[in-house]
């Protein structure tokens, strides 16, 4: 705004007997300020706001102010968002009668001005006196989720209430249509976007943004875990790209002790495996017989009889024999110390922070596959030559009442990791330090300051060819393949680690004896590995100067290999087989998008939306749909299947030749669309674009 205009506005205010009433007279007699953007009315109002600060005597109070507030409320009903703040400030609306303000917002709401009602409520901080469900529902149906987030942003109680409401709507069997029907006349009505998928995404975004306990949303959390479970079964039994061991680990941590998920697990096992496998899992989960289908309950009874017979004939020294198969701690049980107080921790630190000391460090946390947020460390293990210290971090955090106590652990860890005179042993230490930083924010950049770190993961990375192939052991009828640190322990020390307790609930107290021994072994074995590698590095393919091979900054655990490209699948021999070669025959005759109908697999929803914009008749699978549903839809409705990767191999055999096309998943939706249109010779005209409902 020019200086000349500002001066003119200020001279005008100075010449008025009542400038506050004068502004309202001007706004009531003009419509210039009602449009979008910065109007003349906006500039005059913002200049008056500044002018009042310099001339506080013009401020009104009492009955006169109430009259002005009543007038300004009528203007606010038509007011653009940029005028709200100046008018609220000039007419001191925060001091106005709260019932009057609530009544005005209610009037806007009942007129159908839901967005305006919400914005004004946020500006006047009226949310605690309003019904959060009533205010937010129409906004969600209009796809105004950002406004909903702002509405509850400063009120933890409302955040929790909103999350509980959204979770109720995601309950199996709840009909979302019952909500949308109430708002059918709504402008910008978007019921297609108001669905469980959108609500679920919103819930997770709010949980993350407001740091709310996920336990408030059991339906959404359970549904996400169920999707994870379905995905794990797909990876293991359809794609066959996941090992039994990894699959078992992830299924256990996904299902946990949740009875509802355990019931779904049994149903999936019946569908993909057999009754015996379902019965074994039912036994592991301690499921009551009344929860089990008849066939599974019958199979479980047979298993229990068989186990009783085996128990009766088991040798007396069975446990001792089993122990001989795994690495055993060479120190007495009395030398493993479980520390829960700061006094005990202080004694540990005095022993650890000695120059020339070699320490093995490991950490445990509760498995969090499919959960919200980062894992927090539950147990920190520090091993010395003659003893192991297990620090109970949740308890120590709980007891850190003063600021100085809260800084003790970060200070100790910084001293330990920055001291080059102390050798720190770990396995994939970057992952551990990231989890530790999530537990204690003061430790955020500690991995950058680390010195004297020996990451034994480098042995695996450097010496894949030297170390022998993976070996397997039979245990209780299940095949257990050694991997990671356990495999390294087996190669260097002769016996693998017993990883039975790896997926324990490390937050639960008291820890079981098996957990304590497992945790101590994980840290102590690093000392023994290091000692043996130092004595004879050449036999393990390391340079004679071991520090050259190992000592350095923590290494990040190697990422999984890049996903296979389109139409490349592993063959039984381990080589990659290319998909079908491009056809060299003449291209098909040109067709319009209206004549081209497709079904997009669930990993190609972006492509589906793009093709629909171009006028193509598109159906898309939902995230939870099995890929095989695409073949059913294609056969019933005469559609072409668009898919990618391994599902292409399955789906192409279920439809006629040329009716299934594999898209390159690594490309963006636009490039994918060009590839599809070119292959099927679909000719797009200007009239086709946005010719279909989006």
TrEMBL record:
SUPFAM superfamilies: Ribonuclease H-like. The keyword Hydrolase applies. One of its GO terms (molecular function) is nucleic acid binding. Residues 553-590 are annotated as: Disordered. Keywords: Exonuclease, Hydrolase, Nuclease. Residues 336-538 form the 3'-5' exonuclease domain. This is MUT7 Exonuclease. It comes from Rhynochetos jubatus (kagu).
């Amino acid at each position: 705004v020019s200086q000349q205009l500002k001066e003119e506005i200020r001279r005008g205010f100075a010449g008025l007997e009542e400038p506050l009433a004068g502004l309202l007279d001007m706004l009531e007699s003009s419509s210039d300020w009602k449009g979008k953007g910065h109007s003349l009315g906006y500039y005059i109002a913002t200049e008056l706001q500044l002018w009042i600060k310099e001339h506080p005597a013009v401020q009104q109070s009492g009955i006169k102010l109430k009259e002005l507030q009543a007038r300004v409320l009528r203007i606010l009903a038509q007011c653009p968002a940029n005028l709200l703040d100046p008018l609220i400030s000039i007419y001191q609306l925060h001091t106005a009668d709260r019932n009057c303000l609530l009544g005005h917002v209610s009037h806007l709401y009942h007129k159908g001005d839901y967005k305006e009602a919400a914005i004004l409520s946020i500006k006047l901080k009226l949310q605690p006196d309003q019904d959060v469900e009533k205010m937010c529902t129409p906004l969600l149906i209009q796809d105004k989720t950002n406004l909903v987030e702002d509405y509850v942003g400063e009120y933890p109680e409302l955040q929790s209430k909103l999350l509980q409401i959204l979770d109720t709507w995601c309950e199996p069997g709840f009909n979302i249509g019952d909500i949308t029907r109430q708002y059918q006349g709504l402008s910008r009505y978007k019921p297609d976007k108001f669905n469980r998928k959108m609500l679920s995404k919103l819930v997770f975004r709010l949980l993350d943004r407001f740091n709310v306990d996920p336990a408030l949303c059991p339906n959404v959390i359970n549904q996400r875990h169920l999707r994870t479970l379905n995905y794990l079964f797909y990876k293991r039994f359809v794609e066959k790209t996941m090992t039994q061991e990894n699959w078992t680990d992830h299924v256990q941590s996904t299902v946990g002790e949740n009875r509802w998920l355990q019931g779904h697990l049994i149903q999936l096992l019946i569908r993909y495996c057999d009754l015996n496998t379902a019965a074994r899992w039912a036994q592991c989960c301690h499921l009551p017989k009344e929860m089990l289908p008849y066939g599974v309950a019958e199979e479980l009874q047979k298993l229990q009889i068989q186990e009783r017979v085996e128990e009766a004939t088991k040798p007396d020294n069975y446990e001792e024999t089993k122990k001989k198969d795994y690495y055993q701690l060479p120190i007495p049980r009395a030398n493993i110390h479980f520390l829960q107080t700061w006094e005990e921790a202080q004694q540990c630190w005095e022993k650890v922070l000695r120059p020339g000391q070699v320490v093995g460090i490991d950490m445990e946390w509760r498995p969090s596959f499919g959960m919200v947020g980062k894992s927090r460390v539950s147990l920190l293990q520090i091993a010395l030559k003659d003893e192991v210290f297990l620090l109970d971090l949740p308890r120590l955090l709980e007891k850190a009442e003063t600021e100085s106590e809260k800084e003790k652990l970060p200070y100790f860890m910084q001293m330990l990791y920055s001291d080059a005179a102390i050798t720190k042993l770990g396995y994939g230490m970057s992952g551990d330090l990231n989890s530790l930083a999530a537990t204690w924010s003061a430790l955020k950049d500690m991995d950058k300051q680390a010195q004297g770190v020996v990451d034994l993961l480098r042995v695996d990375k450097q010496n894949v060819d030297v170390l022998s192939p993976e070996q397997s052991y039979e245990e209780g009828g299940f095949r257990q393949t050694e991997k990671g640190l356990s495999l390294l322990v087996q190669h260097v020390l002769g016996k693998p680690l017993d990883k039975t307790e790896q997926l324990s609930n490390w937050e639960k107290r008291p820890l079981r004896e098996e957990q304590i021994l497992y945790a101590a072994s994980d840290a102590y074995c690093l000392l023994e590995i290091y000692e043996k590698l130092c004595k004879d590095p050449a036999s393990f393919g390391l340079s004679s100067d071991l520090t050259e091979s190992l000592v350095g900054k923590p290494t990040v655990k190697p990422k999984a290999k890049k996903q296979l490209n389109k139409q490349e699948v592993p063959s039984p021999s381990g080589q990659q087989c290319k998909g079908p070669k491009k056809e060299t025959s003449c291209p098909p005759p040109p067709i319009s998008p209206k004549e081209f109908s497709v079904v997009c697999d669930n990993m190609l929803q972006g492509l589906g939306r793009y093709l629909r914009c171009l006028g193509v008749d598109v159906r898309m699978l939902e995230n939870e749909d099995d890929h095989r549903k695409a073949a059913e839809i294609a056969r019933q409705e005469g559609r072409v299947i668009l898919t990618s990767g391994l599902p292409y191999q399955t789906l192409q055999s279920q439809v006629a030749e040329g009716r299934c096309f594999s898209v390159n998943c690594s490309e963006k939706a636009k490039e994918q669309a060009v590839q599809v249109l070119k292959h099927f010779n679909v000719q797009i005209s200007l009239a086709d674009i946005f010719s279909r409902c989006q």
